[in-house]
Amino acid sequence: MVQRFSGALWRAVHHVRSSGSSSIPTRTLGLLASHGIPRGLAVNAISTSRKTHGSIQQFRLNSSSASQSDIPKRRSTPVLRIVNNLDPRRLLKSDIIDLSGPGRPRVKFGTATDTGSQLTYYWGSTATPHKQVYNPFPPGRGFFYFRSRPGLPVGTGEIRFRLVEADSPSDSATDLFVRGRDLLEHRGHMPWRLHMLQIYTSKIYRPLRSLLLQQGLVSQAQIRDAGQRAIAQGRMVLRHDSTILDTISDTFVIRLPMPTNRMTFIHEECIAPSVQAGCKLFWRDAQGPGPVKGSDAPSRVYEGYAALRFELKKVERIKDFYNVKEGQVVLVLRVVQLFDPVGPDRVPFSLPEGGDFVQREVAGRYWCMPLDRALKYGILTPSSLKILEELYLGDRASAKFATTGSAP
């Protein structure tokens, strides 16, 4: 029976091919119908065979029950975004690009012949071990641009993305840039950036380095010196979880409590990459560690993002710190802003005016680091110590080493 069915179908196909007619012999249609093949479906299948320019190709009956996995998927052509300018003083409207869409958009910098660099907005872990998910850039169009601050050491600076809105065709690129705003990172507290240390030390940003050089925004000596200034035998190893600080007085954002605070410090003398700058960092409400009126929580430990900065502090009460001497100058961390001030119990946290010091795991003790230890690990250098002394010690001048060493 199968042979009869196949033979009839072959003769029907041959009839259509040789005659150019779209009609199928009645006997063949009756045979196909007796095998449960609808007339319309058979005509469609045979007509498709006719369109293959006389060649008989393997075909599959077209039905609504066909598996979706059998249907070949068309791959979308990746969009290549081209950036030819990073200098905010030379902006053109043609420099505006759109980063929204894919998880990691591909951007070609300058006239490089490569396929472009894939940029990451931010990535997070998934329930599957060792698997990461890349989150797309938010909707918006704008300019990539180089930003630096005068007077800072080699290795500082960053690439930012300025979001703009074209209100009128007569708006110049400069007007759009001035009225625009920098794209924020996913937490919404700091601008998204590609730091120059990442650009100098990663192969994927080689075209970006070339464009910066071509436009005179950086020099070959700066790129070379940044890699050689690492404190650890000339090796510049940047961990993805390391916060980069252009100068010791800058404010930065972390999430509290913080088990291990890793930071990269850029000093006049050197660059200290991925240093452990504090562990088990907490902040508790000034009302104390016990129960608070209106809250069922046994402890008022803040959980959320906060803005911090390094300061120097002369110890006045030994009980506020651990293993210090009275009059000793130590490195401390001050909380200057809470970004998630309402706790899970719906009771707001109250940060004192002017901020408060970061605390240790034990309630009532502030985190601190003796200056000799901070100098040893590269958190401080003579130049950065001087910056903090001028900011926080004032007319008390430099702390002598006898009062800055670790307590026995």
Largest sheet: 5 strands, antiparallel
Mean pLDDT: 78
Structural class by helix and strand composition: alpha+beta
Dominant shape: globular
Ranges where pLDDT stays below 50 over 5 or more residues in a row are 1-5, 39-74, 288-297, 396-408
Number of domains: 3
* Count of alpha and pi helical runs: 10
Order of helices and strands: HHHEEEEEEEEHEEHHHEEEEEEEEHHH
How many angstroms does the end-to-end distance come to?
A: 99 Å
What's the arrangement of secondary structure elements?
Layout lengths: L1 H18 L6 H9 L4 H12 L29 E4 L13 E2 L7 E4 L7 E2 L3 E4 L6 E4 L5 E7 L10 E7 L8 H7 L1 E2 L11 E2 H6 L4 H9 L5 H9 L14 E3 L6 E5 L1 E9 L4 E11 L22 E11 L14 E10 L17 E2 L11 E2 H7 L4 H11 L8 H4 L4
Parallel strand pairs: 1-3, 11-13
Antiparallel strand pairs: 2-7, 3-4, 5-6, 7-8, 8-9, 8-10, 12-15, 13-14, 15-16, 16-17, 16-18
Helix pairs in contact: 1-3
Brief summary of the model shown:
The chain has 408 residues and is of the alpha+beta class.
Explain this structure.
Strands 2, 7, 8, 9 and 10 form a five-stranded antiparallel β-sheet that branches. Strands 12, 15, 16, 17 and 18 form a five-stranded antiparallel β-sheet that branches. A three-stranded mixed β-sheet has the order 1-3-4. It is of the alpha+beta class. Helix 1 (2-19) crosses helix 3 (39-50). It folds into three domains: 2-65, no CATH class; 80-228, no CATH class; 243-404, no CATH class. It is globular. Strand 3 and strand 4 form a beta hairpin. The chain has helices at 2-19, 26-34, 39-50, 173-179, 196-201, 206-214, 220-228, 371-377, 382-392, 401-404, and strands spanning 80-83, 97-98, 106-109, 117-118, 122-125, 132-135, 141-147, 158-164, 181-182, 194-195, 243-245, 252-256, 258-266, 271-281, 304-314, 329-338, 356-357, 369-370.
